[in-house]
Design goal:
9 strands, 12 helices, alpha/beta, nine-stranded mixed sheet
Length: about 325
């Protein structure tokens, strides 16, 4: 779809059975007076009043339009929105969240000022049961795309999310979309690819988004944590191999694979299955000659099947010294 020069930001909002939370989201969008925006709501086959609420909102709000589709999941809904977007930039908002006052204006001004293809900002965590707001900030701020990819592999609580960012729509021009087969971590996968191709990025210190936590939040419903994240890890692996950067991020990917399994079942069980389940994915497609010198010892421990012993020793040392091995979020 051709870019409309009158629209600065296309805001994509996937909605599925969100009637309990929509009013706050809609009011926050309605309050965004600058820049020029279009709101694209994708009703993903809702069976409650979501569709009717959106239609009523669009009748009163000229900047809004609603697409009703058969239920296909949040990634398919977002992809449909990307294909419909006409603005210079794309922003994503979840139906149960909200924008801060002037949230889009802050992001847009930051993007225009810096010329960044991806502009991110801090956000506010709002616990709906406790009625409590907690700021989520990046310290220290990372501005290099290659370093941000490393943070995404480690599941960074700001860089992984699609919301609270502005993306230059040109980043999607070649058909880049979310992987609709991945249910958990699909936003991290897309962000990895976006940051790998972005020439310039910027992070702003302001809070521009409110992430509202409730009993039906996506992450609150994960029961099989380790198993649920395997498609995301396989997707990361495929992306790094395709881009020729897996060796560069070898240590980070190894740590993330281990951390996810350890969080799900504990150190002992994780290390027991490491060589059979985790090791093949970590080593797949690796060119030993391209492993950084600083990671060679670690690579050889994994390749030789000695990593479980090494890792167990590192975790024991952690308890004795308090010095952590690796990044765990």
């Amino acid at each position: 779809m051709a870019m409309n020069s009158n629209i600065d930001v296309s805001v994509i909002v996937p909605c599925f059975n969100a009637e309990r939370y929509l009013s706050v989201c809609l009011e926050s969008l309605k309050a965004q007076r600058s820049p020029e925006i279009e709101m694209i709501f994708i009703d993903d086959g809702s069976t409650d009043a979501t569709g009717a609420i959106l239609d009523a909102f669009a009748r009163a709000e000229p900047r809004a339009r609603v697409l009703h589709i058969h239920n296909a999941g949040v990634s398919a809904a977002r992809n449909r929105g990307i294909s419909q977007a006409r603005g210079r930039y794309i922003a994503f908002v979840d139906a149960d969240d909200a924008l801060e006052d002037k949230g889009l204006a802050i992001l847009y001004q930051g993007a225009m000022r810096s010329g960044a293809q991806i502009t991110s900002a801090n956000h506010m965590l709002f616990d709906m049961t406790k009625n409590q707001r907690v700021p989520v900030e990046i310290e220290p701020v990372v501005q290099q795309p290659s370093e941000i990819v490393k943070e995404i592999i480690h599941m960074h609580r700001i860089y992984n999310n699609l919301w609270n960012k502005l993306y230059d729509r040109e980043l999607f021009a070649d058909g880049l979309r979310l992987d609709e087969s991945v249910r958990i971590g699909e936003d991290a996968l897309l962000n990895m690819e976006l940051y790998l191709r972005a020439r310039k990025v910027v992070h702003l210190p302001e809070s521009t988004y409110v992430y509202r936590v409730h009993s039906q939040s996506a992450m609150a419903s994960i029961r099989e944590y380790g198993q649920e994240h395997q498609p995301m890890l396989r997707g990361m692996n495929a992306l790094m191999l395709r881009e020729g950067v897996k060796e560069l991020y070898f240590r980070d990917f190894l740590q993330s694979c281990v951390w996810i399994d350890e969080k799900a079942q504990g150190i002992r069980a994780c290390m027991k299955i490491f060589n059979a389940r985790i090791r093949p994915l970590v080593l797949e497609g690796i060119d030993e000659k391209r492993i950084p010198n600083k990671d060679m010892r670690l690579y050889r421990a994994v390749k030789g099947g000695h990593f479980p012993l090494f890792y167990t020793m590192m975790r024991v040392r952690e308890k004795l010294t308090g010095k952590r091995w690796g990044v765990r979020r």
